[in-house]
Every structure is written in structure tokens, then in C-alpha cells.
Specification:
Length: about 300
């Protein structure tokens, strides 16, 4: 069966992490392998849904430029889908986004506006608001942080896929917060359809961190779509633990994943150890948000201190 490019978004595999959880009998840990999406990340889902919703409402038309802020992956998804559908794309992203991300965005033909590295994703948000406010008629501004079509993409697709792939056996869902769309949409679906499931958020341990695309909510501009009531608890993730797990995933599981995915697996393993210590069984699912191809220039691959 053939698809167009858009038709290949979603229905990603759920992979069991056998080695990572090998010393935890009764604890199953799975990663939703979102790097199988054509744009290489989980962000293909919300980007597509926000564009389709923009088309449906008439906000996105052929003469408008799609503009948004991004730490990279949503931008890549916008640029890929925009190229396929004939839209111009303009993106604000922090200067310290990995070189690979900038090259991919440029390859798709997106126009980049680089913002302060120190201000992170919040600086990019402030810049896109400024540009849009000056010429609102020129742009379609989906605003991924406040757009319900972001979390609804996961409510409609990611959540049901996880339920089907675990045959309804999932007991715990854990993932880091960025726009919070993956956590909010997937959790809403799981809490609706799976009795007793527990949804646990994760965040960088401090406001200054190396987990690209994620937010330390106490010090960040909180996304409009974020709903803190969905999480039964929150895990605080250290950047070094995420780096360490990215290396372990590559060398033990044969999976090249990105930094936030490493943080997610570390969170899932932390939870698994707690539950095992309590004598409990569990089916824990987390998200492998993207692949390592955008992070191969990072120092941690060969850092002897990790």
C-alpha cells in the first residue's frame, strides 16, 4: 500500500527496552519510537494537525507564511510538511540549537531567525510574537505552545496507538514536558480509556539545562496548553543522566536516540526501580522523541566523566 508523505506520519513502533530494564523482573519498559516519523520526530504529529486545522479554518492559505518559534523538531516538521504542501516557512529558534537542526531546516527551504542562546526557547517565543504583531496579515502563526491542535494530535493518534500496542496493559506513562502537547494529549486519552493508568511528567531539574526542547516550568513561559492536573507526580531529570542514557541506549539497545529521549528513558527507569523495590509489576511507556542524528556533534558521546 502506497502513501503520500503525510500519510506516513504516525503508527510508529513501540519498542521494548530489554537491556535497560534487565535487572528489574516484572517491570516492562517500552519506548514509542517517534524517530520513525518522516521528519524524524514526535513533532510531525502536532505540526501536521496544526497545519490541517489552519487550512480547515481558513487561517492558513497559500499566500501566507507559516511562522512559529521552535527549538528545532516542530520547525523541521513544519518545513517538511510546508515543502510538501507548497507553503513558505519562517522560524524563530535559539542560536544554540544544534548545527544539524539548522542545516536540516535550511535544506527544506525554511527561513531562520536566530534568537538569544541565553534566553532559550522563551527568547524565540518572544521574538515570534514581536514579528507576528508587526504584520499579522502576512503570517499564519499556529503558536504550538497554545494551540489545542497540538495536544489533540496525541489524543487522536499517540494515545490510541500506545493502548493498542500494549493491548491495554500500560500501567504508567512518563515523558518530559516541552510544549507539553505529547504529555497532555496522550495522558488525556490514557486516563479516559485505561482504568488505573498513572501519568507522570518529567522536567529538567533546573532552569539552565541541556535538554533541548524541554521546559523547567517553574522558571519558563508556561505553555497555554499545559494542564498540571494530569500528572500524578513529576520527576526532575539531570542533563548528565539524559546524556548517559543516550549512550546506553546506543550501546546496549542499538537505538540511536536524542537527548530528550535519553531523559525520558532515565525517568522511566527511575520509576521502574521504585516500583520494583515496592514489589510491584508494571508496564511503563515513554517516548523516544527523536533520533540521535541531530546531536552527533555533541561532546557527551566520548566524555570520560559520564
Amino acid at each position: 500500500m502506497s502513501h503520500d508523505l503525510i500519510g506516513t506520519i504516525g503508527n510508529t513502533p513501540l519498542l521494548r527496552l530489554n537491556k535497560i530494564a534487565a535487572d528489574l523482573p516484572g517491570i516492562e519498559i517500552y519506548g514509542k519510537a517517534e524517530y520513525f516519523n518522516p521528519g524524524g520526530s514526535v513533532k510531525d504529529r502536532p505540526a501536521l494537525n496544526m497545519i490541517l486545522e489552519g487550512e480547515r479554518t481558513g487561517a492558513m492559505t497559500a499566500d501566507k507564511v507559516l511562522i512559529d518559534s521552535t527549538s528545532g523538531n516542530t520547525g523541521i516538521a513544519y518545513a517538511m510538511i510546508g515543502a510538501a504542501r507548497g507553503y513558505r516557512i519562517k522560524l524563530c529558534l535559539p542560536k544554540n540549537a544544534s548545527p544539524e537542526r539548522k542545516k536540516i531546516l535550511t535544506a527544506y527551504g525554511a527561513e531562520l531567525v536566530l534568537t538569544s542562546a541565553e534566553e532559550g526557547s522563551d527568547g524565540a517565543i518572544r521574538k515570534v510574537r514581536e514579528i507576528y504583531a508587526a504584520e499579522p496579515d502576512k503570517y499564519f502563526y499556529p503558536d504550538q505552545y497554545s494551540n489545542d491542535a497540538n495536544w489533540q494530535a496525541h489524543f487522536k493518534t499517540t494515545g490510541p496507538e500506545i493502548i493498542a500496542q500494549t493491548e491495554g496493559r500500560i500501567t504508567h506513562f512518563v515523558t518530559l514536558l516541552g510544549t507539553s502537547g505529547t504529555f497532555v494529549g496522550t495522558s488525556r486519552r490514557l486516563l479516559q480509556d485505561v482504568p488505573g493508568v498513572e501519568c507522570i511528567s518529567a522536567q529538567p531539574a533546573t532552569g539552565f539545562h541541556g535538554l533541548e526542547g524541554t521546559k523547567h516550568m517553574p522558571t519558563a513561559i508556561v505553555p497555554g496548553i499545559y494542564d498540571e492536573k494530569l500528572a500524578s507526580r513529576n520527576l526532575w531529570i539531570e542533563t548528565e543522566d539524559a546524556y548517559r542514557m543516550v549512550r546506553r541506549m546506543a550501546r546496549e539497545e542499538g537505538m540511536l536516540v536524542g537527548i530528550s529521549a535519553g531523559g525520558n528513558v532515565h525517568g522511566a527507569l527511575t520509576l521502574g526501580r521504585e516500583l520494583h523495590a515496592q514489589g510491584k509489576k508494571a508496564v511503563i511507556v515513554t517516548v523516544l522523541c527523536d533520533g540521535a542524528d541531530k546531536y552527533l556533534s555533541e561532546h557527551f558521546w566520548n566524555d570520560p566523566n559520564l
